[in-house]
Amino acid sequence: MKTQLQLKQTSVKIGTTAEPEYGILHWQDWVCKVAASISQVAKPRQYFAMEFVVIQLKMERTSDGELPRIPLPEGYSLRTYRPGDEHSLARIYEYSDLGSATPESLRKNILSHPCFRPERILVLEHEGQVVGTSAAWVEPSDPGAGYLHMVGVLPEHQGKRLGKLLTLEAMRLSQQEGFSTLRLVTDDWRLAAIRVYLGLGYVPLLMHPTHRSRWELIGHRLDHPGILDDAREALPQAAPGILKRLFQAFGF
User: Fold this and answer.
1) Ranges 20-24, 84-88, 123-127: which has the least confidence
2) 79 and 162 in one domain?
3) Fewer Cβ close by (within 10 Å): the C or N end of the chain?
């Protein structure tokens, strides 16, 4: 009888306070690499019966240099969040697979977040309709960095560099708040977005034992062999194994 496996990818919010488990076995690294490959065909959903959490990727930019500007195309305007935007933003979040894809979950996860300020959420309009968004986020668990968060553009408005424009404007907001360290969390399958982030000076931040091999695979897919050249290691100290803890307890 064939064993059905299920892969579960959590919707991890940027700057989540939850700490991942790090005593991971070698076969799990292989599963992550396979999962990343599968995700290029379709966004990770339910592939495998054994539940497995894929730790999202993280990137960092430490330069406080001046950011380029992209002019708004004709017919578009940029503003900040206003009450009543929830339905429009939730629609963009759903299309972009960002989570918080209903007005209720958006109010809970975004508008009720400790860092929420209306000026931190950018809203892109076309002829009065909300078509894109991004956010300059801050997390209490990582107060020294400004986070790029929730970047999305409706499909019918893609191909006009609007995603890059929203990315840059959110980064600029973080810089204006005084952050020289900028971070973001992303997924293996968001190759177009990762290409933009790399071009804007973000580098991989290796936070988990699976990250290096997954970034190598992304570098291959993006034809970017030096993707790890400037990567920064940020692996926490692994907890000692059970035998080592027993030896320590008995004074060996």
Assistant:
1) 20-24
2) yes
3) N
